[in-house]
Amino acid sequence: MSDHTPWPEEFASAYRALGYWRGETFGQWLRELARRHGTREAVVAGDVRLTYAGLDHAADRLAAGLADHGLRKGERVVVHLPNDAAFFEVVFALFRLGALPVFALPAHRGAEIAHLAGQSGATAYVTARDLAVESPVPTLYADALPYAEPRELDGPDASDVAFLQLSGGSTGLPKLIPRTHDDYLYSVRASAEICELSEESVYLCALPVAHNFPLSSPGVLGVLHAGGRVVMAPAPTPDVAFPLIEKEGVTMTALVPPLALVWMAARRKHDLSGLRVLQVGGAPFPAETARRVGPELGCRLQQVFGMAEGLVNYTRADDPDEIVHTTQGRPISPHDEVLIVDEDGRPAETGELLTRGPYTIRGYYRDADPSAFTDDGYYRTGDLVRRTPSGHLVVEGRVKDLINRGGEKVSPEEVEACLLTHPAVLDAAVVSLLDPYLGERSCAFVLPGGTPPTAAEIRAFVREQGLAAYKVPDRVEFVTAFPTTGVGKTSKKELRAALRAGLRGEV
Ligand code: OOB
């Protein structure tokens, strides 16, 4: 069993011949950036200002220290850090060593960290004091990292897996996504070019940096690639972000739709005129809201439709406004292959998006859930899309069982599994509930057994089991029986319909 499904040789050699995969690792890439931009500022976080050379050197020292600590090439390390400078030092040290960061989000709690550590077989957990949860593997704190004298290390190959990211996108329990140096660096370079980044670019990282959107679409890595400056926001709220935009001369940032709404509604004492581009993605962004971004925030909107599994779509700087307002962009690469198919796999106008290409994985880590890929290697995104004559994709809905809570992805199955461990829960079904602000919220239908618990008890229980707060059901409804489908499965369609009808009558 190999840890990752490689691209078939004919695809790999084509991607190399096209210059997409360059045989460069992230460690080498940072070395080259330090050579080119050495004294320029790379990362600003609070009082810390790291230059390109400073980051390069810190990564070397930390890689040596971690090696002394016993960490070896190929080992996995859960990285659970806030938007801070330490994130860059840790991740680039691991890249240099050829150890694989397993990216956790700050919102993740004990259950997610244990899942990530267990699934990846991690040997260490790197975190910050105020985020730390109990971990099944030894913990290293960001304020007590083992730096040592730099030395030559036997690093990874560019075709090796660079890191593991959590899938937000597919049905079932969250799975691990293996991304190689070659494929990820291609997406970073190509994204930086599409987004016209340069040394003048100043990017505010307001979303959690370990997520694929702010990490590489074009995100912090794209901005570093262009020699620009990354400014880390400890929170995405206007009170934190606006002063930073003004003070640091931020030119670009990325938000999920609910935050874009909050930014538009906020009273502004700060001068945001330096902000040229606001990217919005991660969840549906209605055209009526999209149209407001330009006039209300004084910057250009860019829609981004991506997934940690690979494919990322952008609206382009020279797209007409109507396209930017009404579509979710078009793929990065001319070699992104996109199919739109009906339930029988036949081409359709509106249908499920299937994709393969130079930076889309061919399988999950250790081949979890092979059914998420077709026999000829396309990833089944679970997203319902159509394509405009201009080649842009419009997300119309989805076929996967997933709740997109303003960009934060909730797997109903994961929450149901948690609810079923409650002694007074016989059965549970978690479905989405439409919400004007988040797009969707979650509702848990619970069939109680024994003494019925209260909704508050159910919610507290989920939290106590160590799940992230965004996975706690927003609403809990008790039922005496579940509506069923023809074959006797719980009908989530009927549960959702009952919610829309305001739960009048029997569910
Ligand atoms: C991004 O990545 P993930 O892995 O958290 O979630 C992927 C899923 C997509 O399959 C789709 O269902 C949804 O999130 N999604 C969107 C969207 N962008 C993502 N749905 C509607 N409109 C959009 N613009 O969310 C992600 C990764 C890289 C860049 C941007 C977003």
From TrEMBL:
InterPro entries: AMP-bd_C, AMP-bd_C_sf, AMP-binding_CS, AMP-dep_synth/lig_dom, ATP-dep_AMP-bd_enzyme
The keyword Nucleotidyltransferase is assigned to this record: yes
UniProt entry keywords in alphabetical sequence: Ligase, Nucleotidyltransferase, Transferase
Boundaries of every AMP-dependent synthetase/ligase domain copy: 31-365
EC number: 2.7.7.58
SUPFAM superfamilies recorded: Acetyl-CoA synthetase-like
Enzyme class, broadest EC rank: transferase
Presence of the UniProt keyword Transferase in the record: yes
GO terms for MF: acid-thiol ligase activity; nucleotidyltransferase activity
Domain AMP-binding enzyme C-terminal per the UniProt entry, residue ranges: 414-489
Pfam families assigned to the protein according to its UniProt record, in alphabetical order: AMP-binding (PF00501), AMP-binding_C (PF13193)
Stated family: Belongs to the ATP-dependent AMP-binding enzyme family.
The name this protein goes by in its record: 2,3-dihydroxybenzoate-AMP ligase
Species of provenance: Nonomuraea soli
